[in-house]
Design a protein that fits this description.
Elements lengths: L1 H21 L2 H29 L9 H9 L4 H25 L9 H25 L8 H13 L4 H24 L14 H35 L8 H8 L7 H23 L3
Amino acid sequence: MATRTRRYGGLSSARSAGRQAANSPAMKWLARAGFLARGIMYAVIGWIALQIAFGKSGQQADKNGALHTLSSTPFGAAALWLLVVGFFGMALWRLSEAVYGAPGAGGREAKARLGALARAVLYAVTGYGVLKYAIGMGAPQPSNQQSVDLTAALLRQPGGQALVVVAGLVLIGAGLAQAYQYWRMRFRKDMRLSQARARTRRIVEWLGRAGGVARGIVFVTAGAFLVMAAVRYQPRQAKGIDSSLRALAATPAGPWVLVLVAIGLIMFGAFSCCEARWRRV
């Protein structure tokens, strides 16, 4: 009985220590560094996309192109290591939410924890790719090739065509849901904007609304091409971020749709930097 009590007490102490670490100033600093890193990445991708719209860039409008662009600047090395710290920091913060739950209503529900775990894995993979690039082990694979390779691999599996269709529909649904939530400015509940001036608050809300809708459009476009690739059984129809953005320039409206979405991605990057300052973590 005493042994069982000691074990329970030790487990309880470990959990308590874990929660304290998850809520520590260091973890909050890492989370804010993560939002800053995400903001820089999206702003650079948006800038590349804007140049593509006017035929002034041959760079990939994705993570790969963003890393190449940042590394070519005078502060390139520092920027890359900031991204490494930020993305791994975001991964740790999301992992802590998966283990201990996020603050606020519904933060400890299974759905919220699974979402946090998925984001933790995504940011860890992104951070690892940036780390490899920063230490000279090569750039991450372009998003276009990643999409084609993954789609081809799935289509070769039994029932793979249905899986790709489902994945595309999920991506479309996620994009639409994100665009709707940002348009309705649902993000305000996670922000401490009451501490900001009224004008600053309006700017942050405007950035979040326009930027979130633009990001959602990119997801919807990529999902639509994924469904098309599955229906036609043509893996090369699948598109990453870069090809999805370039496809927007092929609409009847010409490059202006891409211009608007590119500006929106830059705005989302700016909004993410604002989250580094005002997000509740």
